[in-house]
Automatic annotation (TrEMBL):
Entry remark concerning the domains of this protein: The HXXXXD motif is essential for acyltransferase activity and may constitute the binding site for the phosphate moiety of the glycerol-3-phosphate.
E.C. code: 2.3.1.51
UniProt xrefs under SMART domains: PlsC (SM00563)
Domain of life: Bacteria
CDD domains linked: LPLAT_AGPAT-like
Any one Pfam family match given in the protein's UniProt record, by short name: Acyltransferase
Protein name: 1-acyl-sn-glycerol-3-phosphate acyltransferase
Amino acid sequence: MLYSLRMLLLALHFLLVGAVGLIIGLCRPFNPDNSRVFARLYSVPAAWLMRVKVKAEVGPLFDHPPGCVIIANHQSNFDLFLIGQAVPRRTVAIGKKSLGWIPLFGQLFWLGGNVLVDRKNAYQARKALQKTTRVLQDDTSIWIFPEGTRNPAEHLLAFKKGAFHMAIEAGVPIVPVCVSRYARRLNLNSWRQRTVIVRSLPPIATAGLSQRDIPALVEQCRSQMQQCIDRMEDELARR
């Protein structure tokens, strides 16, 4: 009963934010700060409805000026509701082209200046990546999930290299953002409040690196994120 009620309320909330966000987006289309506004509209009420306390420890991310590549782990479709509070100003995201067809949300994603990529079309994918370089050089950050798919497991999947190509080509730092493993513990049929930690790590400079440095950079980022996620899980287990 509680699960059904929550899902209904979340669906209504999703539609309401879509309608309100559409008005905002049409008033200031492609503003690079739209995504942050939309993310908070989605996240803050939804986290309350889900009885989730989001503990955002993202000082290194918020303190860094716009113009970086943000990489984060991706667990479920609820990510938007839980980590939206950690999106900094002037940040856009990269998403698959099919997101653009979701009613209201797809239009918000587009009006937010986010980049839609057709992964099945190599030419269009390359053009989208070229666009991201221009975005980064325009003092705007890009948020990307380097695993490339949802992963609720304990260990991160192998990272795809696109985010690292972008950062090196634009000469901007990478800021890892780690989210504690909530997907398997989330119970929408319970009144019990649960805590999700979102923690950003210090920026990793890419200035002076070349494409040959990408494998080592990928492994450095993945290793740091895995260690951070493991630490957060230990902290939550001790509570």
